[in-house]
Amino acid sequence: MKTITDYKEKNVLVLGLAKSGMAAAKLLNILGANVTVNDQKPFEENEAAQKLQEAGLKVVCGDHPLELLDGVEVIVKNPGIPYSNPLLAEALKRNISIITEVELSYQISEAPLIGITGSNGKTTTTTVIHKILEESNKKPLIAGNIGTVASEVAELATSENVIVMELSSFQLMGTKTFKPVISVFLNLFDAHLDYHGTREEYAHAKANIFANQTSSDYAVVNADDETVMSLAKSARATVVPFSTSKVVESGAYIKDGSMFFQQEEIMPVREIVLPGKHNLENILAAVAAAKLHGASTEAVKKVLTTFTGVKHRVQYVATVQDRKFYNDSKATNILATKAAVTAFEQPVILLAGGLDRGNEFDELKPYLKNVKAILTFGQTAEKIERVAKEAGIQTIKRVDNVEKAVPEAYQLSDAGDVILLSPACASWDQFKTFEERGDMFIDSVHRLK
Q1: Please, which pLDDT band fits residue 313 given cuts at 50, 70 and 90?
Q2: What pLDDT is recorded for position 197?
Q3: pLDDT tens track for 38-58
Q4: Number of domains into which the chain is organized
Q5: What is the pLDDT of residue 397?
Q6: Which stretches make up the Mur ligase C-terminal domain (predicted)?
Q7: CATH of residue 46
Q8: Can you count the helices (H) and strands (E) in the chain?
Q9: Is 118 known as a binding-site position?
Q10: Is 174 annotated as a binding residue?
């Protein structure tokens, strides 16, 4: 860990606990800051706050009093807390610097960073980069929106490591000096507009990944996404494109059934075991980033011929009586479900529904051609049923939850079918997390066996 004095004797407010807030508070304390922690959850129910108070930090729980801002020089906020929060709105008026914990991680990291962002595919791409670099003995560490909190990883990293970091728009909004040696921008679709307000603000937050890069850094970008390419024009880094539809000789691409990187043939596409065109995009991005950091072609081949996917992202679960079950609980928006459904040539029985964020699902309609039945649940059940009827799907059934959907889907299926949980919605109407929803699906499938 780098020894920095940026926070020594500074009054710093950590807003919101959870894992990243807890890590930030501990780190700032080590760095000599005068730390105050503020969390909405009442103190008597807040184990994290109690531990921090025991460690000697000032803790205020239950609400966000504006008096906390008096004398504060920096706020480190939980990424999920919107800037419309009254405390943050007032802090902005007072020109108090607001950052997220990933900014701290960059400031203390001895290791170079590879940062991955985009609306979909971040976790798969991050995981594939990590695996290829690991296979190439590059000593990678994985962090950010996936796995361990970024600053905890950065504390342990040395100059011999490389940190592969998944980054959300929420995290990137709170960066000031953050600079990856390789940035990866996968795609941009309407998402999190309830947080960002407009697509433009969302895009601007994502583009922060380029903001501090220089000509000695790389920006791996999706040449098939017009918005990403438009945003990449502002990048001072060396732009390295990837594309599934055209030859981009300075980057990663498909030609004559093989994958290439900068004119080097890597391997035939048919040997890649992860299904779906969307995953081919993720793989091209991952290969570009890994090769730019010195990964071997042999390592790329080994990973791509064995890697079957990340849990909850079009994850193969089991085969029961010649029906294949896939868990794509991470599909919390329409685009992710579109990608999952079109990844299969077999007939699909789709399990979908969840939190109602006010959107309709008409965009999904053209992609339901191989869906033979839909089981719906959650707040959006009725909206998804309407689209299914308009798409000509004959079998539509509503169930209470994912657990009930699995045996019902099995009863409706035939040998050779795919039964796919890909909800197209967030999980928060019935679950705490999409992982909890996916685990319920997995458990229900195993009970069928």
Answers
A1: confident
A2: 62
A3: 999 999 999 999 999 999 999
A4: 3
A5: 98
A6: 312-425
A7: 3.40.50.720
A8: 16, 20
A9: yes
A10: no
388 lies in a domain?
yes
The verdict on whether residue 122 carries a ligand-binding annotation is: yes
Per-chain mean pLDDT for the chain: 94
- Is 319 annotated to bind a ligand? Reply is no
Is 16 labelled as part of a ligand binding site? Answer: no
Which of 304, 335, 370 is the last residue before a domain boundary?
304
Written as six digits, the tokens of 283 are 């793989």
On whether both 334 and 387 belong to a single domain, the answer is: yes
Do 326 and 420 belong together in one domain? yes
Was 120 annotated as part of a binding site?
A: yes
> Which tens digit of pLDDT belongs to each residue from 366-378?
999 999 999 999 9
Are residue 111 and residue 83 in the same domain, yes or no? no
| CATH assignment at residue 341 | 3.90.190.20
Q: Is the pLDDT of residue 66 over 60?
A: yes
pLDDT at 190 over 70: no
Whether residue 192 is predicted with pLDDT greater than 60 in this model: the reply is no
CA distance 79 to 323: 40
Q: Are residues 62 and 113 in the same domain?
A: no
| Residues 110 and 89 grouped into a single domain | no
99: pLDDT confidence band, cut at 50, 70 and 90? very high
pTM of the predicted protein model: 0.81
Residues 26 and 66 in one domain: yes
What sign has the CA pseudo-torsion 268, 273, 274, 278? Answer: positive
Domain boundary among 37, 67, 99: 99
Residue 390 lies in domain: 315-448
Q: Is 197 contained in some domain?
A: yes
pLDDT in tens, 318-345: 999 999 999 999 999 998 899 899 989 8
Residue 342 marked in a binding site: no
